[in-house]
Amino acid sequence: MSEKFQAVVIGGGPGGYVCAIRLAQLGLKTACIESRGSLGGTCLNVGCIPSKSLLNLSEEFHKVKGLAKKGIEIENVKLNLDKMMKSKDKAVTVLTKGVEFLLKKNKVTYFKGHGSFKSKNEISIKDDQNKEKLIKTEKTIIASGSIPLSLPGIEIDEKIIVSSTGALKLDKVPKKMIVVGGGYIGLEMGSVWSRLGAEVQVVEFLDHITPGMDKEISLEFMKILKKQGIKFNMQNKVEKIKKNDSGAIVLTVDKDGNKNSFECDVVLIAVGRKPNTKDLNLEALGVELDEKKRIKTDKTFKTNIEDVYAIGDVIVGPMLAHKAEDEGIAVAENIVGQSGHVNYSTIPGVIYTTPEVASIGKTEEQLKENKKKYKVGKFSFMANSRAKAIDDIEGFVKILADEKTDKVLGAHIIGPHAGELIAEIGIAMEFGASAEDIARTCHAHPTFSEAVKEAALSVDKRAIHS
Ligand code: FAD
Ligand code: NAD
């Protein structure tokens, strides 16, 4: 007899494991199926966590080398890449094991194996020996995530032509690295390898990096990255990548039809990710997909098939871990009859480069397109006392507020700790705050957060320190 569950989650990433824990907290007998052998999904295993670990370690290495001019002289600063990678791997192991503990603590049954639908209420789990087990379920939540996208005719071998997964575990620093795509992954991983000594060149299809980001921030970001030594080849489309004895040659064509070629030892393909719906047997079940092959759901995360739900990277929306987590909680609450809900207008996005880049809500371009009248408040970190004290002055805070009501519509920050500072704006937006509400809130001195307060003051043209 197959074991029976009230809810089964397919996928143990930030969407899936969080959803499973919330379902169990709400009293449902829950199982979570994960095929990769460890929990935490893309995020913990080959995404957010290892990339942030390497971003931090490479930044420390880079900073130590620059300390001499501040009076701290350390001789013979050397890179031990092997140790650095081990340190990153340790962070991953600690966290993935931590998720396993959390599932146990919440009495979620964890199945290691590949899950697929036998029928709407019966799930097959195949382990790595291809041994099959069947379980019964009342509700199923698909949280199967996403996988790297490649370009037509280009095969990722994770050695010379790598995705983010290969870029997180190179065994030596490449002399020359070509990064195809100037988005989140390209700029984070490009920064890592540039700081460790690679000559990094980005090849980007568009005329600007980080599409969708506020243009003023995007331009400032590119300027800063250029100063750090990363080269940009904009409006270049990759036509072919030829592997040779020493690495590869990337052949591109620019907007005027000129052909370019870039020699390198490693090419990182970072042109986006695609939903992972492989071998779930969705076709047989009749689950509808959209034009981008994402699983279609309604606002409560129900698919077109009764009792089957989907969340995270496999459905529409930004491919971000916190978005997947919030959807995991919302769908669990909806399943037990509560009113689970995700506010998509206040999902922050953060790029963990130096400086960090963070945004929430509308960009200036979106407000213009929607013909919304708005005011802008800006404040530079150059005039922030904490930033000055520690010589971390690059970037600025930009707040966009409704021209009439002063309600905060969006905020964009490039600068130190931008990823932490954006949380304040998130809370403000959730509470429907005005720029004046932020400006009249006491902020500790000397902190970077005073730059947020000053930007809010600047919306009303009354910043004090600029
Ligand atoms: P995933 O995390 O992809 O998890 C899905 C899991 O389901 C996988 O472990 C997969 O093995 C499993 N699975 C799939 N099919 C089956 C099946 N049939 N049976 C059993 N198991 C299955 N986001 C951020 O918010 N911040 C960051 O800093 C950040 N950095 C990133 C860096 C990199 C290099 C990458 C690649 C991504 C990064 N992301 C970041 C994006 C983030 O990782 C994803 O948005 C997030 O992991 C999506 O969560 P998910 O649960 O929907 O899917
Ligand atoms: P992306 O969508 O962020 O960027 C892809 C870039 O590639 C874009 O600038 C695009 O114009 C460019 N591009 C597309 N086709 C191209 C071509 N043929 N030639 C040259 N350039 C081309 O995608 P990504 O960087 O691969 O990251 C995937 C997703 O993973 C992100 O969208 C994000 O959701 C998530 N992620 C998040 C973080 C974070 O939160 N810090 C970090 C890494 C990844």
Account of the 3D structure:
The chain has helices at 14-25, 41-46, 48-65, 81-105, 164-167, 184-195, 215-227, 282-285, 321-335, 364-369, 385-389, 418-430, 435-439, 449-459; strands spanning 3-10, 30-34, 109-112, 114-119, 122-126, 132-142, 146-148, 161-162, 176-180, 199-203, 231-233, 236-244, 247-254, 259-264, 266-269, 273-275, 308-310, 349-351, 356-361, 374-380, 396-402, 408-415. The chain is of the alpha/beta class. A hairpin with a 2-residue loop joins strand 12 (236-244) and strand 13. Helix 1 runs parallel beside helix 9 (321-335) and helix 3 (48-65) packs antiparallel against helix 4. The chain binds flavin-adenine dinucleotide and nicotinamide-adenine-dinucleotide (NAD). Residues 10-16, 33-36, 41-43, 47-48, 51-52, 114-116, 143-146, 164, 185, 276, 280, 312-313, 319-322, 324, 352 line the site of flavin-adenine dinucleotide (FAD). Nicotinamide-adenine-dinucleotide binds at residues 151, 180-186, 188, 203-206, 211, 237-238, 270-273, 318-320, 350-352.
Low-confidence stretches: none
Q: Summarize the amount of helix as a percent range.
A: 25-40%
The CATH top-level class label of the largest domain: Alpha Beta
CATH fold topology of the largest domain: FAD/NAD(P)-binding domain
- In CATH, the architecture of the largest domain is 3-Layer(bba) Sandwich
Bound molecules: flavin-adenine dinucleotide, nicotinamide-adenine-dinucleotide
